[in-house]
Amino acid sequence: MELTIEKIGDVSVVELAGEQLDASNVKEFKHEIAPVLAANPRMVLDLGRLRFIDSSGLGAILSCLRQLNTAGGELKLCGLSKPVRALFELVRQGHHDKARELQAALVRASKFILSEAGIAGLKHVMDQRGYRGGIPRLPLLPLQLEQKKRLNDFLTALEPAVVRA
């Protein structure tokens, strides 16, 4: 996982390049962030590109917080997307069951979107949610109307679970 570091005074702004922080890449994140934590007691972690985080990713960020707090430093987060922010808020408030429910709904959505329509489906969903997904480039083909309808119906059915959490 690539990290970009910018020093502003005595604060280091660390940007995660990936769109997900989960079991598949959390070990790499921990490896990359360790020397940054050791050298920068005051840090802002920019999660602006992060669209998905699971419990292992949450744990890794909480571990960063603990390390910096122990060293007398501090960690601030910025750029959180709505789903990522919602998950952090639920954990912060002690609503672990709701956090797990939200995470399960987001995992279900991710699996459905990618299995149903691949990258073209992901781009369509991004467009539907106000992000810039755009048209898939060749050799990928754009979605058919029926595929778009299935994805939109799925998102509509999923919305109550995300709002409830």
Low-confidence region ranges: none
The figure for the number of domains is 2
Order of helices and strands: EEEHEEHEHHH
Work out the strand percent. 15-25%
The CATH class of the largest domain, by name, is Alpha Beta
Number of distinct beta strands: 6
Main sheet, how many strands, which sense, barrel? 4 strands, mixed
Provide the CATH superfamily of the largest domain: STAS domain
Named at the architecture level, the CATH assignment of the largest domain is: 2-Layer Sandwich
In DSSP terms (H or I, runs of 4 or more residues), the helix count works out at 5
Percent helix range:
55-70%
Overall radius of gyration: 18 Å
Mean pLDDT: 85
Gross morphology is globular
CATH fold-level name of the largest domain:
Transcription Regulator spoIIAA
**Major sheet strand order:** 1-2-4-6
Distance between the termini: 29 Å
Give the helix/strand class.
alpha/beta
Summarize the helices and strands and which ones pair or pack.
Blueprint: E1 3-8, E2 11-16, E3 20-21, H1 26-39, E4 42-46, E5 52-53, H2 55-70, E6 74-78, H3 82-92, H4 96-128, H5 145-164
Parallel strand pairs: 2-4, 3-5, 4-6
Antiparallel strand pairs: 1-2
Folded structure, characterized:
By secondary structure, the chain is an alpha/beta fold. The protein folds into two domains: about 80 residues, STAS domain (Transcription Regulator spoIIAA, 2-Layer Sandwich); about 70 residues, no CATH class. The protein contains five helices and six strands; from the N terminus they run E-E-E-H-E-E-H-E-H-H-H. The strands form two sheets. It has a four-stranded mixed sheet. Helix 3 packs antiparallel against helix 4 and helix 4 packs antiparallel against helix 5. The longest helix is centred in the C-terminal third of the chain and has 33 residues. About 20% of the residues are buried.
